[in-house]
Protein: ATP-binding cassette domain-containing protein
Amino acid sequence: MIRCQHLQWGPSGQPLTPPLDLHLPSGSLSGLIGSNGCGKSSLLKIIAGLQQPLRGRLELGVPRLGGVAYLVQQQALDRQFPIDLHSLVSAGFWRSPLSRRERQARLCQVLDDWGLYGLQRHSLQALSGGELQRALLARLSLTDAQVLLLDEPEAALDDQGQTLLWQHIRRWQAEGRTQLLVSHDLASLGQRLDHALQLSRSGCRFAPIRQLIGQRSPLEQVA
Ligand SMILES: Nc1ncnc2c1ncn2[C@@H]1O[C@H](COP(=O)(O)OP(=O)(O)OP(=O)(O)O)[C@@H](O)[C@H]1O
Structure:
């Protein structure tokens, strides 16, 4: 669950949008859309607790530590950081109650799921954009967090990667996790999601995504 009351965020004294009131129930899957610089990534950082809001209240129903997982845009990562793919993905076990043996089995499964087998010892620099994105998603797959914040998760993924991504998103939805997903691919979101939050300087609007992007359903098109 994510509940915002009169929430505002942005640079000090310069809120990016009018106050946001929003309730995303547990298990919901919602898009977060809007033009470049309107404040989408900043809102995810506020929800993740990485930035402070300017004003308003935020309620998550879970503790931030362990309860919220945030998939960052990969350009926010330092590719020079001296770790390999194995270490990056394994960070998803943080606070996990699994035994060493269980972790090993789960890691193998997740690496296999995301098509990363054989790349465990590659440094971050040696990964392609799509491989790094799969590694970040594999790390997310290891967490038990109930709130998942996904910032452009389809970035750099090929068709097969995008299919895998949406299989996982549907699985997380079936597990009752709350997901908020930033994307600029409105056509794809329009086919896959029911609702989205649209941010802009003039206002925030949570509505059926087809209304927001001006798309009509196939039935409406026939009618
Ligand atoms: N650390 C910061 N200091 C000052 N301004 C910032 C900071 N981070 C972001 N901003 C500004 O806040 C605004 C919103 O940025 P944000 O990254 O949230 O936009 P966005 O909607 O995610 O954009 P995009 O679609 O381009 O990813 C931008 O104008 C940006 O320049």
In short: The pocket of adenosine-5'-triphosphate is lined by residues 10-11, 16, 34, 36-42 (CB under 6 Å).
